Amino acid sequence: MAHWTDRRADRGGKIVAGNWKLQPPRGEGVELFRAILAGLGDAPVGAGGPGAWVIPPAPYLGLFGGELSLGAPLGLGAQDLSPCGYGAHTGELGGELLADFGCALVLVGHSERRQGGESDPEVAEKALAADRAGLLPLLCVGESEVERDQGDTIAVVERQLAAVLATLAPERPLWVAYEPVWAIGTGRTATSEQVVEVHQAIRKSLARGGRDGAGTPILYGGSVNHSNAGALLAEEEIDGALVGGASLKAESFLAIVEAGATVSD
Ligand code: 13P
């Protein structure tokens, strides 16, 4: 049976995940989720799992988890997790609890959390906690504008990856998202060439860490929208998109999903 982390497994297209961040308010969020689910209709779900994912703020997870039937074409992810398991940890949100509420994936190391002070070792600890809870960690890596200008892009991404590769056993599932900080929410999408170069370096790092570099799904994130998604997702090196702003409108999110399905045909 194909493992669900295999990028070549049949998912009916590329992976498109919408990271809603801290928005929208409740009424809009419920409407958005239902419109996405309706828009996906009975899109096929292969052994590789769903191709489309929503990653909403945590309070939505319980709500949406209850609305997804087994085998739905839409997966549910969380934006962060605490490394704590069940117990007396006031204010923490652990992986087991997220999994209990229908979550299958969790972002770790998003740049907005790294900017808030999250370190590489903390990110690695979270990736391990996610795996222990049965969640798929989607590790976010990416350089700042200054780091790119200094020619440090690959070194930064390799450093961010190394912490997780040293912690999470190579046979455990892991997805990666390359999200250059300068491209997030700025409208300045990285070029396909820039993305491909970094994805290739990530694959080499993964292989050096004993992983299946070629088989690991690597997504690109940073100002992806319905106009630029087709060209980015047409690249063989780019297995999917992690979408912020454009995932907050059902039409634009669904158009990106469609672009991913079209290039995979
Ligand atoms: P934008 O698509 O709004 O640039 O956000 C990207 C992102 O941070 C997804 O995690």
What report would you give on this structure?
With 265 residues, the chain is of the alpha/beta class. 38% of the residues lie in helices and 14% in strands. The protein contains 10 helices and 8 strands. It has an 8-stranded parallel β-barrel with strand order 1-2-3-4-5-6-7-8, surrounded by 6 helices. The two termini are 22 Å apart. The relative contact order is 0.16. The model has no long low-confidence stretch (mean pLDDT 94). The structure holds 1,3-dihydroxyacetonephosphate. Residues 19, 110, 179, 184-185, 221-224, 242-246 line the site of 1,3-dihydroxyacetonephosphate (13P).
Itemize the secondary structure elements and their pairings.
Elements lengths: L14 E5 L6 H15 L11 E4 L3 H7 L8 E5 L16 H6 L4 E4 L2 H4 L5 H13 L3 E6 L3 H5 L3 H13 L9 E4 L13 H17 L9 E4 L7 H5 L6 E4 L6 H15 L1
Parallel strand pairs: 1-2, 1-8, 2-3, 3-4, 4-5, 5-6, 6-7, 7-8
Helix pairs in contact: 1-10, 5-7, 7-8
Bound molecules: 1,3-dihydroxyacetonephosphate.
Low-confidence stretches: none
Average residue pLDDT = 94
Structural class: alpha/beta
List the strand order in the largest sheet.
1-2-3-4-5-6-7-8
Keywords:
TIM Barrel, 265 residues, 8 strands, alpha/beta, 38% helix, eight-stranded parallel barrel, binds 1,3-dihydroxyacetonephosphate
Summarize the structure.
The chain has 265 residues and is an alpha/beta fold. It is built from 10 helices and 8 strands.
